Amino acid sequence: MTELFNSKLCAICKGRKLLCGRPTCPILERFRVAQSVEKKLNKRHLFGSSPPSIFVGEHGYPKVRIGPLVPPIEGNTSHLDSPLKWENKTIKDILYYRSLLVMGETRADVSVRKSGRVLGEIQELAMSIRPVDSEVILKRKPVVKVVPSEFAPPLGPRAELLDFELTENPKIPRRTDYVVGDELKAEQAIMRLYNWGFDEYYIIRLLSAGLLGIDRKLVPTRWSITAVQDTIGKNLRREILGYPEINSYEVYFHEFLGNRYAVLLMPQSYAFELLEVWLKGSLFGSAEPQVIHDYEDFRGIKGYAKETTGAYYAARLSVLEHLRKRRRQARIIVFREVTPAYYAPVGVWQIRVGVKKALENPVGRFEILNEALEAVRKLLEHPLERYLQRSYILGHLAKQKTLDQWLGKVLT
Q: How crowded is residue 184: how many other Cβ atoms within 10 Å of its Cβ?
């Protein structure tokens, strides 16, 4: 097995022998997708219906790349940028969707007070809840490639932006106008929109475009995703701490886009842990896969999730939504296994969806912990003992002598 791109092995393989052990060649797959849309994008002047979609980069902060994402297609294009609705899509579908969205990129200061007409148009686009007919003029024909991301949905073709204009009025909800026009702190604005039922990625778009908070600034898309998921998660955690605990051990499971998600809920006070393994042959896997993790108790995580990064906030939010709906609290462990079938990162939205779908698929309820752990063992490929040795929650329980003799032996 090898890392994602090993020049020597790739030269020998040429995508035909799959020497890396993956079910499909990630290089050839991206090439095929790009090739399938190249003719549609071979021009500098584009007219189409933005889903709507924008992107804000982080490189060079506080001078960042920003731009609208516009496909050469008119009509209802909302499916091109609806991550939480892609639960029945394949990685190839997602790469194709993103390859159609051309980004006209320009540099801007993060301070929206220094914005000009183009940024104003981009902000109006961000507030829309329906596709908006848009016109983009580029300095040159876009470079046709798709760049996968472990945080945001993949970014497609791009070129320097000369001009951008909305050719129809965007559909902006009154409640959005109210939140954007009021002097609310970003957390207050995010929670109002969330509790009103707005799509999570719509809120992320507003934050990225510098439309939320008192001190308005552009926020890189990657940062916005984590900020919104973390903000909502913190508020839901405070709420469920007042609910009674569940009364049995519960195990759930779902496999999505080459990721396995097993969720263990325990009848104790709230704590959350994500245990993650990139298996041998997966994108970032190694010959000896290691378990990485992050953890929090009722006080929340200290600082940023250093090992599992954005996956932590995405997985936590899905479980907290589940518990809030049930009006219960629990001690939680999410096991994530990344298999070779996940050949191109598509963003943390797939973790949100994968964990959410897992919680809709119960494996069983158990009276004692070792029975629940045996159920988890059967769902995973990586040895359960490796997870348990790394787990803070189960290690802490063992120290409190609340586990049975079997688990005590595993951890010794």
A: 17
